[in-house]
Amino acid sequence: MWNPARECSLPVFPARGARSLAAALAAVLVAAPVVARAQTQGEDAVTEPASLPAAPALLVATTPPAAVVVPPAEPARPAESGTCGKAGLERVADAARRGTVRITTHTSWGAGFLLDDTHVVTHFHVVDRPFRLRVHTRDGLSVGAKVVFTDAFERISILELEAPLPGKALELATSAPVIGSEVVAIGVPLDFGTREDRFPAHRRGVVADRDDELLSIDAQVGLNYTGGPLLDCQGHVAGLLIPPPSGRAEWESPMGHAVPAGKIREARASVGKKPPPVTTNIVFGFATAFAAQFERGKGFVGGTMGMPMLFADQWEFLPRFGVFGLVPTSDDPRLPIARTDMARIVADMRIGYRIPLVSSPASVSLVPSIGAGWNWEYTEEKTYNLVLDNPTCMSQTDPCSFRMGKNTKESWAHAGALSVGLGVHVHALTFGYELRVLPSPDVKFIHQVSLGLSTF
């Protein structure tokens, strides 16, 4: 076995090898004057075989001793040509600041990059509901856009800008990065566009695996990287970043994935050859909320559920159904004891208009609305009191006994309702206030507050 300590010391020759070496040196010393004399006497004298020493002695001397240990060759180190270095990272930073964009719709946002002056590439999930589709650059420009190409199988969408953005496009890599080479994933941070000197959201990694359909890197890529570019050390686009696998959180997916640049090049060549995706003017969603109602010292708690429809880009139509229950109050311990249970069913239709306020870091909209509907109320009034079993027991010697008597009264009531409201949508969260007015039989005002979720 190879011992590093043995390599650091001088080689040790055995006694037999030492004697052979000494004999060889003596032969050389004897031959030296003979050769010198032959040079003075002429070329013929040199060829006299009697004056030359025996050849075997020289052959022994030139053979390396058997005890010499030759250390094994050091294994070759992999070349570091795949690392970006300082110059490469500067190229990546310049490309990321120049060509990375933020894409927003009425309900979502994501990353993208400029393919040329008038086209942007992103992941198709970012623009699957392209209402109020806009592209934002880091220097504050905001341009409207429309989807002109979508390939759900390859997970690529291409947008066409309403106005060109010259000088910001990124160049696609001509070849896929080799396994082990360094790459940088680029996303959009929450403060995108607020600090021009800040490097965009990024994750450095190396290519762990690749094929014609997918690139894998050893870096976690979150949802804010979806649709962003994967850059090589030259600042060229090596791939389009895709989100973590469905149903898995970012920390549960240690590998990042990207669609290779070759697929992006094929998609760009298909723009105009395939009809653009058909988009409808109506988008259906789902909404649910926890709500509370207050009226004349009474409180109700419950929930609502509806199917909102968004049309004409900003108008929202919401058919809704809700159930509420009366919050019980503390009973008077004095007799008779009365308890009232009430259940309220609400069905109405609301129409609202979305007013966008903020698009970053989250889409925020203000939604004033009006509505009309119907209220049904079920009321059950229970009265408890002590009842004397034998009324004549007071005049007799027998003891009196009592029992608890209960009287129940049930009733149904229904009335139409008008409502005005104001809601705030922060991405998928909804906060709302409504004033509901029941004009008959008696005018009743109901205040309602809600907190819920909406798919758009």
From TrEMBL:
Any one Gene Ontology BP term: proteolysis
Signal peptide: 1-38
GO MF entry, a single one: peptidase activity
A UniProt-annotated Pfam family: Trypsin_2
Transmembrane segments: none
Keywords, in A-Z order: Hydrolase, Protease, Signal
InterPro entries named in the record: Peptidase_S1_PA, Peptidase_S1C
Alphabetical list of PANTHER family matching this protein: PROTEASE DO-LIKE 5, CHLOROPLASTIC, SERINE ENDOPROTEASE DEGS
Full protein name: Serine protease
Taxonomic source organism: Polyangium sorediatum
